[in-house]
Design goal:
The complex is a heterotrimer of chains A (about 400), B (about 120) and C (about 130). Chain A has one domain (about 1-405): Amino acid/polyamine transporter I (Up-down Bundle). In chain A, helix 6 packs parallel to helix 13 (about 255-300), helix 7 packs antiparallel against helix 13 and helix 10 crosses helix 17 (about 375-405). Chain A is built from 17 helices and no strands. Chain A has helices at about 1-5, 5-20, 20-35, 40-65, 65-110, 115-130, 135-145, 150-155, 165, 180-195, 195-210, 215-245, 255-300, 315-335, 340-365, 365-370, 375-405. Chain A is globular and about 55 Å long. Chain B contains four helices and seven strands; from the N terminus they run αββββααβββα. Chain B is α+β, with helices and mostly antiparallel strands. In chain B, the strands form two sheets. Chain B has a four-stranded mixed β-sheet, with no helix packed on it. In chain B, strands 3-4-5 form a three-stranded antiparallel β-sheet. Chain C is mostly helical. Chain C is built from six helices and no strands. Chain C is elongated, with a radius of gyration of 19 Å. The chains are: A mainly alpha (about 400), B alpha+beta (about 120), C mainly alpha (about 130). Chains in contact: A-B, A-C. At the A-C interface, helix 5, helix 10, helix 13 and helix 17 of A face helix 1, helix 2 and helix 3 of C.
């Protein structure tokens, strides 16, 4: 029974990992600007992340090593510095964006400016990361995150998409001068979805939960169900943006705007549901981001780590956590809009994606770690395809960001 | 796993490995290894080095000098190879955390920084 | 080095293959974005009075709209791709009442919120049209 209750690990990983300020931002903007014309990018990203999460879980369950531990031990310190540095930069920006997302959600519920709510939001993340056992971190945002199912209710309440809109699924309408923006959103969608912090968090979570080779089925189910659930929420947001925001010529450039579609569908209760969904997903994501990067550093340097230990028992791990939260608060207090921060963070992630994912190719084929459960041909081809996509995305993300003026 | 006579170890098996004390406490990773020239001309591994200077040295030698200038050997520690009881991806040490200066870092941070934050378990 | 040498040809290929303009001028982009934000503001204000959102929600949203639109009147005249002075002046004339509505949106029943919605709509339409 406990094993199947553990399926919430997958759901929170999805709620926080798939759905977060980044994917909500890209989904909302995609729908508002290009109708359903970017759903294909979302689907490719979903398949990629399902495969990566399943492999990551399998790796940690059998080898009893986390991703960061394996990178340092197998590739050496010099190589380890590359994903480490990219994580530190990207996640600092992303953490600020997630906390900003929590602040905006709270502001939409209370009417108080998000800038004032930013420090309390950061404190909430700190309080949970500091003292809450891994179980709570798993379950609390996950249960709240079920609210994203209401997006589907919203679509139904609005009468579903028109035939004309549905045709944009395979024939996206890209107007003159908007190609750079379109391609930028493709890159941002992939960067927002295939997030390395998710992998560091998931592999550490597998260790926190003491997964073994008996957990492989559970791992597979949580990867597929969890990520699909997250993807559903994302796609629903694209639909809502396309159905409500696009006809009104909005671009979905602020998070509150995206809730207007739920408001049209279900009135003020709908708008509240959006705010709660935003709160839950950004809280889950903030925890995963800050823990993911802290796990990465502690494990890479060989320090004590773990959420089920008292802070003084894993002092350096918790100190790193505090430092990252302080950096995020500093970035947040600069007043940059969280949606813009989320897009910037996704771009940085996209840029370093090949470096973050390359170790997979080697590690998943090493029988020393995986014994008889190394990758089959299909999985290896899948990793190579994902790496190719990652390279292309990394290559074009900066030029596109410049050309499209930051999306 | 204990060393057997027919197991050949490379530096790669030891460097970057996790260091664990007798009571299974993680204290760090091997940053570098020191070796001594013997009289008969052989090179023998003598101690494990853990610390930022050694790590800096692995990136590039000039960086090690800069870091040494700043940190002045205060954060680099040596553990004699004899102290290693078990080899493998995790190196098990004979002593407990308090026996090794590098094992005291967590305690120092706990006592000097974390204690001021409520709920730290201090 | 490889990036610099490949970026040029890559962009050229993209341009020829798609046959369309890759991106817009800075002016078009700015006014296009502003038009969209004005539309969002107008929708938010209408929804607040139609009971579709709470005034707390509306108030919080306007904070974001304001930071997106702030300083636009300083930015516009000097942007790359700006058309003749008359068009820019026309846009600025519509900007002023609209930005007032964003800074102080009227969320009670007793005030002239319909006038604010109208000003926001006018600004939105004009800016979107200027953006192409």
């Amino acid at each position: 029974m406990k094993k199947w209750l553990s399926i919430t690990l997958g759901i929170v990983t999805a709620t926080g990992g798939f759905l977060d300020a980044g994917t909500i931002a890209t989904s909302g903007e995609s729908g508002a600007r290009f109708g359903l014309g970017l759903i294909w990018a979302c689907l490719i990203a979903t398949v990629a992340i399902i495969l990566l999460v399943e492999m990551m879980g399998r790796f940690s369950a059998i080898s009893k090593k986390t991703y960061a531990e394996a990178i340092r031990e197998n590739f050496g310190f010099k190589f380890y510095l590359l994903p480490l540095l990219s994580e530190v930069i990207a996640e600092s920006i992303l953490l600020a964006a997630e906390i900003g997302g929590i602040a905006i959600a709270l502001s939409l519920m209370t009417g108080i400016s998000w800038r004032i709510l930013f420090p309390p939001a950061a404190f909430l993340v700190f309080a949970m990361a500091w003292r809450a056992p891994f179980d709570w971190i798993e379950n609390a945002p996950a249960l709240l995150g079920l609210v994203t199912l209401s997006f589907i209710v919203g679509i139904i309440a609005l009468g579903g998409p028109s035939h004309q809109l549905l045709s944009t699924l395979w024939k996206p309408e890209v107007k003159q001068g908007e190609l750079a923006d379109y391609l930028y959103l493709v890159a941002a969608t992939l960067g927002a979805t295939i997030s390395p912090y998710l992998l560091y968090f998931y592999s550490s979570g597998a260790r926190e939960e003491h997964w073994t080779s008996n957990s492989l089925l559970l791992n597979r189910v949580t990867a597929i169900v969890g990520m699909s659930f997250g993807s559903l929420g994302s796609i629903a947001l694209i639909f809502l943006g396309a159905m409500v925001l696009q006809p009104l010529n909005m671009q979905g450039s602020s998070l509150g705007e995206l809730g207007l579609s739920m408001a049209k569908a279900l009135g003020p209760f709908g708008a509240l549901l959006f705010a709660v969904a935003l709160f839950a997903t950004c809280l889950g994501a903030a925890l995963e981001v800050v823990l993911g990067v802290s796990y990465n550093i502690a494990q890479g340097f060989g320090w004590e780590w773990g959420e089920d230990k008292k802070p003084v028992e894993a002092a350096r791990f918790n100190l790193v956590l505090i430092i990252f939260l302080l950096v995020a608060v500093a970035i947040g207090l600069m007043g940059i809009d969280p949606l813009q921060l989320a897009l910037a963070g996704s771009t940085v992630i996209a840029l370093f994606l090949p470096i973050s994912l390359f170790p997979f190719l080697v590690l998943m084929n090493d029988p020393q770690y995986l014994r008889d459960k190394t990758n089959g041909r299909f999985s290896n081809i899948a990793i190579i395809c994902i790496l190719l996509i990652a390279f292309v995305v990394a290559f074009v993300s900066i030029p596109l960001e410049i050309l499209s003026g930051g999306g | 796993m204990p060393i057997t006579d027919d197991q050949i170890f490379s530096i790669r098996d030891i460097i970057d490995s996790q260091l664990e004390t007798r009571e299974k406490r993680r204290i760090g990773r091997v940053s570098d290894i020191e070796a001594i020239w013997q009289e008969d001309g052989t090179l023998v591994l003598s101690s494990l080095v853990i610390g930022p200077q050694a790590l800096a040295g692995r990136i590039a030698s000039p960086i090690r000098s800069i870091v040494r200038f700043v940190l002045r050997d205060r954060f680099d520690h040596r553990i004699p190879l004899d102290d290693v009881e078990d080899f493998g991806p995790t190196l098990r040490l004979r002593g407990s955390a308090a026996d090794y200066p590098v094992g005291q870092s967590d305690a120092w941070i706990a006592n000097h920084i974390l204690r001021w934050i409520p709920g730290s378990g201090h | 080095m490889l990036r610099k040498r490949c970026a040029g040809p890559l962009l050229l290929v993209l341009l020829t293959v798609t046959g369309c303009q890759l991106t817009q001028s800075a002016f078009s982009r700015t006014v296009g974005n502003a038009g969209a934000v004005f539309s969002a503001a107008s929708t938010t204000l209408s929804y607040a009075h139609e009971g579709k959102i709470t005034s707390a929600y509306a108030q919080a949203s306007f904070v974001n709209y304001q930071s997106e639109l702030d300083g636009l009147d300083q930015q516009l005249p000097s942007q790359q791709g700006a058309p003749d002075k008359r068009t820019v002046q026309h846009l600025l004339d519509l900007y002023r009442p609209a930005i007032q509505a964003v800074i102080q949106p009227c969320l009670e029943e007793s005030c002239h919120w319909q006038a604010q919605v109208a000003a926001l709509n006018r600004a939105s339409q004009a800016f979107l049209m200027a953006g192409g």
